[in-house]
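User: Sorry, what's this?
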Amino acid sequence: MNKLLQIFAGVLFMMSVQSAGAQLCISTDESVADASAILDAKSTEKGFLPPRLTTIQRDAIGTPAEGLIIYNYNHKALELFNGKVWSPLSGGFLCGISQVADADGNTYNTTLIGEQCWLAENLNTGSMIDVTVHSSNNSTIERYCLLNVADSCGQYGGLYKWDEMMAYETEEGAQGICPEGWHIPTYDEWETLVTYLGGWNDASNKLREAGTRHWSIGNTGTNTSGFTALPSGYLFNNAYWNSYESGYFYTSTENPENTTQAGAYWITNNNVNPLVRADPTYKKDDAMPVRCIKN
């Protein structure tokens, strides 16, 4: 029997197995399937090889089925989709492999930087409001979208005023609008991140997404940290500032000298001297993206 006929015969056999509701055994010793299995692979010489995907390819799977299994090239691990997020097949949370879901069901990748576990994406939870509307303490998380375009929230995440981000709490390190088990990073936790990555100059390139898909031309970011900082700018006086050139991030730390202000870090794309900078005096009425850190 030639190769084409063998393939055709195999397809017909599989169709007959499916239609009869029977079991299938793939073995090297001609044994039958175990009574409890619809598919039983047996060998003392070879293993089972699942689909092998990168993280980008995995995340591009449309509506993955609960129980779907792949091997992740980037993470060097088997991963299972549990109906909400991808997790290591071995179970438990493993930073850099496991995903996290927010209250709206949006999923986020994670990255381990030193001893800190960060979301590798900006939060995008809540409902968009117009740039002229002030977010308020109600039952809805309210976010702004870059340039007042709804689709930009899908790329850059939402921008939130400080009080909204903090869920109208003021305690440093509060959960705010982060998923359960995560919190809004403090000023000191950002300082720890920047120090671990080599200080003000080195950290900028290591934190920024590489390429010019989002950053302006000339981006020198390498994203070796996996943080994938994006140039979402910030909202100030109903206008968007420094979009595509800088990424801004609030901390949960108030300015001890002026409680209308809070600390923030911002990441620039300056070809001559890219920096991460800190400023404890940003107005709480500005709106910035949110990154969460694991408790």
Remarks:
- The helical segments are 3-20, 55-59, 150-156, 162-165, 187-196, 200-207.
- Residues 52-98 form one domain.
- The first strand starts at residue 24 and ends at 27.
